[in-house]
Design goal:
alpha/beta; Beta-carbonic Anhydrase, Chain A; 5-stranded mixed β-sheet; two-stranded antiparallel ribbon; about 45% helix; about 15% strand
């Protein structure tokens, strides 16, 4: 029997035959199976990205898979084998599991205001991929990001000051037309886009472990942007 990951709403995902699950109901049943180590090993990095994209299409269509959460709790209590990781902002409007319609045990998520990476998150990604076997990392930014606005305006407030310093490279690198201010919506978005791509680059620049996996074709790292007005995620690059 094919993995529940082979289909999205009855439609085949890259890398799987299109014969095993003829109905949406059948696909939904399999979508509620826990992701196992064997299933994880069978996925390629491209498969992992495709599954996130398929889940996002369900999210946009208003047709998420409804699973028995407690069944998944018990199915994963002995171990986990997530197929992908998402590095996202803490913004309450962009919860990765909901945006990509994934279940308990499916994805690792690391969240920090401004979706940047530091030593702690780099180490977390090394664990998630090299040790735990995840096949893809998505750096997920979003429009109208408060952290990005704070970095542009050089906000000073307690520990927030040091945190926002991580976003200053994106502020400096983004093309500027008009006022350098959080009121300049176009600049805010350009900084957000730049921050995502710099973060993607930093993952392999500052982690020999992640670079080795990417070079070997065992891991794919991509950037994406969530639009808080439409709910749509656009994959970048």
């Amino acid at each position: 029997m094919l993995s529940r990951r082979a289909f999205c709403c009855g439609l085949p995902v890259a890398g799987f035959a299109a014969t095993a699950i003829p109905t949406i109901a059948r696909a939904e049943v399999e979508a509620c199976e826990a992701f196992t180590t064997d299933l994880q090993k069978a996925q390629t990095p491209d498969d992992a990205i495709a599954m996130l994209k398929s889940g996002h299409e369900r999210f946009l269509a208003g047709k998420p898979v409804n699973c028995d959460m407690m069944k998944l709790v018990h199915a994963t209590e002995g171990g986990q084998a997530p197929f992908a990781c998402v590095i996202g902002c803490i913004d309450s409007r962009v919860p990765p599991e909901l945006v990509f319609d994934q279940q308990i045990g499916d994805i690792f998520t690391a969240r920090v205001a401004g979706n940047f990476v530091n030593t702690d998150i780099l180490g977390s990604m090394e664990f998630a991929t090299k040790v735990a076997g995840a096949k893809a990392i998505v750096v997920l930014g979003h429009s109208s990001c408060g952290a990005i606005k704070g970095a542009i305006d050089d906000v000073k407030l307690g520990n927030l000051t040091a945190m926002l310093a991580n976003l200053q490279p994106a502020v400096a690198a983004a093309p500027l037309e008009g006022e350098k201010s959080s009121k300049n919506a176009d600049f805010v978005q350009k900084v957000a886009d730049t921050n995502v791509m710099l973060t993607v680059e930093k993952l392999t620049k500052d982690s020999a472990v992640l670079k080795e996996l990417v070079d070997a074709g065992a891991l794919k790292i991509v950037g994406a942007m969530h639009d808080i007005h439409t709910g749509k995620v656009t994959f970048l690059g």
